[in-house]
Amino acid sequence: MLWLYKLPYKIGLFTAVTAGIVSIPLVFDLETAIWFNDTYVTAEAAGEGETDTWLEVGSWTWNWMEPVSLVQNLGFTFGLA
Question: How far apart, in whole angstroms, are the C-alpha atoms of residue 35 and residue 48?
Fold first, then answer.
């Protein structure tokens, strides 16, 4: 019966770790970021020469990845309280 009380903790931990691991290529890998942008985001693509390095890719993708960050959503929610 104790496992039932630990289940929400384990689900939350699994979800947080999975989201953290998946977010790295979504932000810094150009191929993955282009696919995700074309499939889900449909934001304006970065211009020529703006995604030459992984840091530039991260700068471009962070513009549309940041609003879904858990920290920002929690901060907004607690700000309303």
Answer: 17
In this prediction the pTM is: 0.65
Give the count of domains, the chain.
Answer: 1
| Residue 2 included in any domain | no
Using the predicted structure, report yes or no on whether residue 70 has a pLDDT greater than 70: no
* Confidence check: pLDDT of 72 > 70: no
Separation CA 68–CA 37 (nearest Å): 14
How many Cα atoms sit within 13 Å of 77 on the Cβ side? 7
Considering the domain boundaries, does residue 36 fall inside one? yes
Mean pLDDT, the chain, whole residue set: 85
Decide if pLDDT at 52 tops 70: yes
Distance CA 30, CA 52 (A): 9
- Torsion sign (Cα): 58, 26, 44, 47: positive
